[in-house]
Amino acid sequence: MSGSKILPMQYPIITSWQWQANAFAILANYPQTEPWIMNHFIQLQLTSNPGSSYVDFYRTPTFEFCPWLFHQHLQRDTVRYFNKDICAFFVDCINLNNYIYGVFDQAFFVPGHDRLPHDLFIYGYDLERRVFHAADFTFTGKYAFAEVAFEQLEKAYHAIEGDEDWLYSGKGGLSLISFTDSLGYDFNIANVATQLEGFLAGHNSFEKSRELTYRTNPCVFGLEVYDKLIEDVIKIHDQQQEADYRPFHVLCDHKALMLRRIPFLEEHGYLQPDSGILECYRSIENDALFCRNLLLKYMITKQSSIIDKIITNIRKIRKEEGEQIESLLTKLVIV
Amino acid sequence: MSEQDVTGQIIQRIEQKIESSSGSSSEDAAAITPDTLLREVWLRLESIQVVEFVVELETSYELELPDELLGQIDRSSLKVSDLAAMITGEAV
Q: Where are the membrane-spanning stretches (chain B) (predicted)?
């Protein structure tokens, strides 16, 4: 047996949430997954949780429905029953080409915390140096790859009990994820159009699919996300809600994927080249980044005038994105 | 204060930011000159560091810098020296 193994990982195109970043870090190694990526991550969902809004792509988490990822989910009790040595179990899983995803008390290896239950993605090991290779936001503040000592990871795993294991909205457990090309995927342009129409109408086109996911708090979709974000920004200004830049980071990711989707549609004959939509989406991406950075600036300075700029820009994004999606829908070649 | 002085101060601030950034070495920071493109500087910093840097400059020099610095500047030709010119009021 080799003394080390690192499963394929690339820095992902989207990093707003770790469950998305981890999935994209795997998929980026396999160009054949591109049609599936381009067929998804079109609809946005904002869920109104107490005190904050959670914005993500519909639907999530990717591990559970991506045809390119084989997902095995184990209860912690099951893992514990069969494996007295959790590090040896993880090494065996990696040798079988499984990435490992679970909640760990990262205070054992991230300095400055007494408790830090957070989900970690493990993708390699080195027996000689007794370290795992892992990815998360906790190491540097942005999505990053790092090494964690066996001893620290073992303690971090066993320190998680009960409600702290919040993976998959509280289901908990440990996920083993491997790449599989046994199913494949055919791009479905009609399905893309349906999602775009749903985005415009603020309607989840796949309402029935929600039965496959979890119970959620009230939520809105598509363009209506922007209306809700304006309400949130006003609440932040009025100190009724904590400032949170992450919804705007998701907007940036959404635009980054739209900027990749438009050339994809052109290259595959679903959209005539030089439609002008790509250039307009660059401007929308810029406005999304601008909103995120303005909110960061507000968090530092508390200048009221910044809130007005954010609201103006959200309205601009809503208007321009609505126009561009309408334009895209009229130009799509659906065969 | 001359544009040259301000350029020097800006470079010093950038070097400090880069050195405090995770995964960066002092060699990365040493490569900053007045002709370095701001988009290259931004790439070496975390998002929050870019915003902090802009706020620090605005506070230190008691002015408001253009909003474009907080947007996508990956196709901008602005250089470190241009930022100094904005501060000294010599920008075209």
A: none
Residue of B nearest to A284 (CA): B72
Q: Burial of A333 by CB count in 10 Å (0-12 exposed, 13-18 middle, 19+ buried)?
A: exposed
State how far the Cα of A94 lies from the Cα of A176, in Å rounded to an integer. 9
Token pair listed for A26:
């795997």
Q: Dig out the tokens for A91 from the structure.
A: 């090494």
Q: What is the pLDDT of residues A256-307, one digit of tens each?
A: 999 999 999 999 999 998 889 999 999 999 999 999 999 999 999 999 999 9
User: Using CA atoms, how far apart are residues A72 and A100, in angstroms rounded to an integer?
Assistant: 10
Where residue A112 falls among pLDDT bands split at 50, 70, 90?
Answer: very high
From residue B4, how far is each of A221, A254, B10, B92 by CA, in Å? 51, 41, 10, 16
pTM: 0.92
Nearest to B55 among A286, A289, A297 (CB): A297
Chain B residue with CA closest to A142: the answer is B46
At position A266, the amino acid (one-letter code) is E
Please answer whether residues A162 and A42 qualify as being in contact, where contact means their C-beta atoms are separated by less than 8 angstroms: no
Query: How far is the C-alpha of A247 from the C-alpha of A141, rounded, in Å?
Result: 16
CB A196 within 8 A of CB A122: no
Question: From CA A215, how far away is CA A226, in angstroms rounded?
Answer: 23
Q: How far apart are CA A289 and CA A322, in angstroms?
A: 18
Burial B47-70 (b: 16+ CB within 10 A, else e): bebbbbbbbebbeebeeebeeebb
Both tokens assigned to A84: 């007295």
**Domain coordinates in residue numbering, chain B:** 3-88
In B1-92, which residue ranges form alpha helices assigned H by DSSP? Answer: 3-20, 26-30, 38-44, 47-61, 80-88
Is A4-25+69-179 in CATH node 3.90.70? Answer: yes
CATH of B3-88, one of 1.10.357, 2.30.30, 1.10.1200, 1.10.10: 1.10.1200
**Which residues of A fall within a CB distance of 8 Å from B22?**
139-141, 144
A316 close to B (CB below 8 A): no
